[in-house]
Amino acid sequence: MKNFVEELRWRGMIHDIMPGTEEELMKGPAGGYVGIDPTGDSLHIGHLVSIMILKHFQNCGHKPFALVGGATGMIGDPSMKSQERNLLDEETLAHNVSCIKAQLGKFLDFNSDAPNKAELVNNYDWMKDYSFIDFTRDIGKLITVNYMMSKDSVKKRLSRESSEGMSFTEFTYQLLQGYDFLYLYRERGVKFQLGGADQWGNITTGTELIRRTCQGEAYALTCPLIKKADGGKFGKTEKGNIWLDPERTTPYQFYQFWLNVSDEDAERYIKIFTMLDRETIEGAIAAHRECPERRELQKLLAREVTIMVHGEQEYENAVKASNMLFGKATADDLRSLDEKTFLAVFDGVPTFGIEASKLPLGLLDALAVETSIFPSKGEARKMIQGNGFSVNKEKRTDPNGCLSADDIIDGKYILVQKGKKDYYIIKING
Fold first, then answer.
1. Which of 39, 213, 280, 330 is catalytic?
2. Is residue 230 part of a domain?
3. What is the pLDDT of residues 113-135, one digit of tens each?
4. Which of 197, 138, 150, 164 is nearest to 17 (CA)?
5. Catalytic residue among 136, 144, 237, 313
6. Residue 338 a catalytic site member
7. Whole domain around residue 103: which residue ranges?
8. Where in 14-171 does DSSP place strands (E)?
9. What is the pTM of this model?
């Protein structure tokens, strides 16, 4: 059996590990889970570390359980949070759970006949009929307040430096998460919980509950919280989170995120966020250090993660889109882009509007009268005749030509380019 812990260790994916974890896993196939609170209808790349751990868990012959917190998601985990979360209603949570399951299916095998096929479980199923009185009597009495307050996630929120404090609702979170572990241990034989470093306190509360109620042994393993080399928050851009849902973050934007990471980050991320083997990764890192300006490591990272999340076709489309700004793309490539990708590629490009009723419209009028792409018709004429002007990636050399409905991309856009680097969008209105 492949050594799961050793696989994570060389990849730099272990932060804390309970004694005996590695030895227990080497005894044979075991069950382990990662918990995800469905606070939104899409996972983002901040979730990817835990998901990759679960993927490695299955790849090493063990049985992964993905637990979505339909119940705990109604409360919110206080770990690493300075403020109370907004509480979600049942309908919203059910929708979020459905979306998350579909995304997890890209990483885990839920559908095969293998004995270690992945399973999705929802703690709402076992918490919905559990009364408050019964829970506090059965579970609450097992863990002292002193024990709960000793956890870092609680101490930070109750410290003198914290102005927010913590509600009783959030205080109970670790007890609820601990009960999840106890339930899966008793009902499904799950002995391992995996998660981010910020979850250590909640996870060990679960192992303590198992010890006190079942006199059983359970184990915990956490991964580091990922940060950028410059100390910035991983997975955040100026526009917010990088989502796995293509409707929120286009495959092009997703690909660009990985393509643009620093050399130092690329060396760490390719171990964490891909399934490439050690020999391949170490070879790629060595080659990159020889010629870092080619950014081959970033390209490999971006390729692997984009294909894993969005598929081969979307990866190829993202590469085509990336080539748009560097003169390598064709008119057909441009027309193949959907609207979201088109706008993502040319984000920040100056945009001008022209009414559809004015088409066909002479080039010079379009460029220097209806818009201010050129300051004058004379300058527009000079560049067009000098072979320095394109419409939709195709050269235009006749200043007496026109823009017509045939030039419109996606029903509303025309891309014009003057010189090598200056792009403009003409949006056709009406």
1. 39
2. no
3. 999 999 999 998 999 899 999 99
4. 197
5. 237
6. no
7. 4-223
8. 16-17, 31-36, 63-68, 119-122
9. 0.86
